[in-house]
Amino acid sequence: MRQPPVRFIALLVLFALLLGACGTTPAAQPTAAPAPEATGAPPVEPTDAPAEPTAEATQPTEPPAATEAPAEEEFVFGMILVGPTNDGGWNQAHFEAAKYAEARLPGSRFIYIDKVNPADRPNVQVEQAIEELISQGAKFVITNSAEFGEGTNLAAEAHPDVYFLHASGDAVLTGSAPPNVTNLMGRMEYGKMMAGCAAALQSDAGKLAYLGPLIDPETRRLVNSTYLGAKYCWENYREQPADSLDFKVTWIGFWFNIPGVTLDPTRVATDFISEGNDVIISGIDTTEGLVEANKASAAGRTVWAVPYDYKDACAQGEDVCLGVPYFNWGPRYTEILGDAIEGRFESQWEWIGPDWNDINNPDSSMIGFIKGPGLTPENGVLLDDFISKLADGSLNLFTGPLNFQDGTVFVADGEVAEDLAIWNTPQLLEGIEGQSAP
Hints:
Number of strands: 15
Distance between the termini: 35 Å
CATH superfamily of the largest domain: Response regulator
Radius of gyration: 22 Å
CATH topology of the largest domain: Rossmann fold
Number of domains: 2
Shape: globular
Strand order of the largest sheet: 1-3-2-4-5-6-12
């Protein structure tokens, strides 16, 4: 396919980014965008990552001439993020992980393009953004959204000398990935079980609401995990019957708000509160659930929240925060990038759980849970007991009998769900109110 000249693209890119730099529309999970030939939109330009995430999106710098190349000793790796680097959630966790890796890999340099989504960059496809990173010397590219899977594989086929990591995908598992692609995901199911337990321990009303993103196997299995954690702790620590626990999920339609396209997560959260739910558990990338719970609490309501993704997410509402399950991508990113530098890259599908010796060890644990200031000390002790049972294997919440919403059997009585059955979860569990399919 014929492409516009590189220098022409670079000029258009710089102009487009300078125009768009002041936008503040929240980013969202991308959908298919028109091909560049149809829109005339050039790729966007990556930036060198700053030492710390900034309050605003980092301004791009002038790209080097097409004939320039990185110094021989320098290993440039890039990242495509679906949202902004400072979202207090999914994207910030990935961004800080890349900085973690850069600091531990001598001779490496991190560049990135953020907000690759139809709200912030409506005419930019992930393949275009990847091409721009590669033009700036990237020999390894990380993409961080489920919807980036196909584009990542297409770019990998076009650039067999570049390595790719698609976070949250499973193309290697299904056999559809080129050999220069690897997949990585954390077993957040454990973190969500902890979130559900904390919510059930603290709730007075027994009414828990889950703020969901879009519907797919990943999000269904995380909702199911949250419900199983809540149900166990409601029955075994609170000594309440399971049928007295209300658990509902409302899906907004994407990972975060796109005005006019998704449901407004702020409105959904306020509706939860109006309906009498006293804990909001977030499954989206941003912190509207926590923010609205904090506002309601300041107005005299008893409402708690459990944010998601990022270890410092409680900061936007500490008093009502029961804790946060979070991803810690840095240690594994460092290992995978180090292997690539040394010529030991391996294409594999990984689904990695916590370091049960210390789930909050920043140098070893892929999944953590930090208890929030809103969780009472007494409930904190009970949550610790619950976590210890998950850690030693004495408690496996994916043990039958478990049925789906339509009454079909997910896990038979006395059996334990296999990993791939959980990974490919087709429905929500019986006992959860909300849609299982779009």
